[in-house]
Predict the structure.
Amino acid sequence: MLRADFENNLNLIQDEILELSSMVEHSVLKAIQALKNRDVISSQQVIDDDDLIDNKQAEIEEKCIQLIALQSPVAGDLRIIVSVMMIAIELERIGDYAEGIGKISVLMGDMPPLKPLIDIPRMAENATKMLRLSIDSFVNRDPHIALTVCDLDDEIDNTYNQVYRELLTYMMADPATIQRATYLLWVAHDLERSADRATNIAERVLFLVTGSSRRDDFRASLNS
C-alpha cells in the first residue's frame, strides 16, 4: 500500500470517527430531552439507535485492523491507528450511557416528576460540549483543547455531587420519593461517566501528541 493510500484511508476512518461522535452526541441530547418531556417513544428510539452506534464502532475497528494488516505501521502511524480504535470504543460507551438514560426514562413512564430538571440537562450540555471538544482536539492534534476538556471534567463532577446530595435529601425527607430519586441519580451518573469518557479521549490525544497522557506533565512543559 502506498503512503498516499495509507493516509487517505486513515483520513476516511477519521471522518467516520466524526460521524460516530455526532451520532453519540445526538443520542445523549435526545435521551435527556425525552426524559424532560416524558416522551417514552423518543426514549425507545434512543434505545433502538444504540445498535447503529455499536455497528459503526465495529466498522471503524475492522477498518483499523485491516489498515494495520495491510500497512504494518510502526511508531507514530501505529499510535494514531490505536488511538482511533480506542476513541471509537469510548464513543460507543457514551452511546451505551445514552441508551441507559433512555431505559430509565421508559421505566419512569408516567410517574409524576420529582423536581424540575435543571442540573441534569446542564450536565448533558457540558458532557456533550466536552465530547465535541475532545474530538476537535483529536482532529486538530491540539493538546491545549484536550487539556481544556480535562479541566471541564471537574465541573461535571461538582454538579453530579450537588445533584447527589439534593436527591439524597429528598429520599431522607420522604421515602415515597426513593424510586424516582434513584432513577434520576442513575441518569446523573450516566452523564458523569459520559464526561469521564470524553476526558479519556482528551487524555488519549495528549498521549498521541506529547507521548504522555498525564495532564500535569503537559502543564509542566508549558511552564518550562
Q: What stands out?
A: Helices lie at 3-37, 40-71, 75-108, 119-139, 143-173, 178-210, 215-223. Residues 7 and 77 are 9 Å apart (CA to CA).
